[in-house]
Amino acid sequence: MFLDNIESFSDSDETSEKVSKNSILRDKYRPKTCSSQLDFDNDINGIKCRADLLYLQGQFLDAKLLYSDLYMRQDIKSSFLKRDLAESISRTCLSLGEYGLALEKADQILNSTPDHDDFRIVALSLKLDVLEKSKLGLTERASEYKRSLMQILTLNPNLSRYWNKLAQIYLEENPEKSYLCLLLSKHYCVGQDQKYLDEKISEISNLNPGLDLSKIDFKTPGYEDGEKKASEFTDLGSSVRLKEIEEKLSNKNLNSSNQHSLNLVTEFENKWFQSSK
Q: Is the dihedral of CA 109, 110, 116, 122 positive or negative?
């Protein structure tokens, strides 16, 4: 049998069925929307995200209220989240000009931080930000600001901006130590702005014409000076490591032994300012 017209067998029914199904799917589609403050009253992550958005938008007072409400909730058991909320409250207070409350919360975080370098660096960084932006680090809290810089550089000497800040503190007090700070900044932080360092060195020379900087050099502290060698890393899995850190954060009695050392300044200067002339 030969068909004169293949179109005699129409597929219009099949086509119309597909169109009908697509129309139904389009009618049923509802776009997903972000939650608002009226949704998910008990959604901790949603409220935290909204508070973060308000902070980024500059609505610091509203952000602070949400952060504070979350911080006071009894159903939040995570020490990670509690710590994050405490830092968020401190930074919103700083943005609102509430320097006393910002510093109080920063001190609370630092004093409850266990002997874990990463968390201590974050806590010290927060405190330094508060002391700088509030100008307290230049006035009645100047010695505290100096000690905090020394603490964070002891934990990680590769933070160039803190060497430069410490150099500025020593500029009038002790130009030789100020110069050593710049040398250490240059040594540990390869690739930073050399023009800035050259300008600061020139500033030291101009303020102290009798000081021969060419005769001043430094030696980095080595393992023989008591610096702890890094132990071999063993990857036990992220969940195991996180659980261990969570337990440390939950234990308020685990604090850094030298955080409030009365000899911190002397120990730091003996370690880092061993000028080899």
A: positive
State how far the Cα of 232 lies from the Cα of 204, in Å rounded to an integer. Answer: 42
Per-position DSSP letters for 187-222, written without gaps between them = HHSTTS-HHHHHHHHHHHHHH-TT--GGG--B----
The per-residue pLDDT of the chain, averaged, comes to: 77
What sign does the CA torsion over 41, 45, 49, 51 have?
positive
pLDDT digits 0-9 by tens, 210-249: 777 666 666 666 534 444 444 444 454 555 555 666 665 5
Distance CA 38, CA 76 (A): 20
Q: Can you read off the two tokens belonging to residue 130?
A: 């508060």
Do 169 and 146 meet the contact criterion of CB atoms below 8 Å apart? yes
Alpha helices in 34-116 (DSSP H): 44-56, 60-72, 79-95, 99-111
Distance CA 252, CA 9 (A): 81
CA angle 217, 221, 226 (to 5 degrees): 155
pTM of the shown model: 0.70
Q: What share of the chain is helix, strand, coil (3-state, %, to 5)?
A: 65, 0, 35
| Dihedral sign for Cα atoms in the order 167, 173, 175, 180 | negative
Three-state DSSP at 58 gives coil
Provide the percentage of residues in the chain whose pLDDT is more than 90.
29
CA distances (Å), origin 84, targets 32, 131, 173, 216, 240: 28, 19, 37, 43, 21
Locate 137 and state its tokens.
């680090």
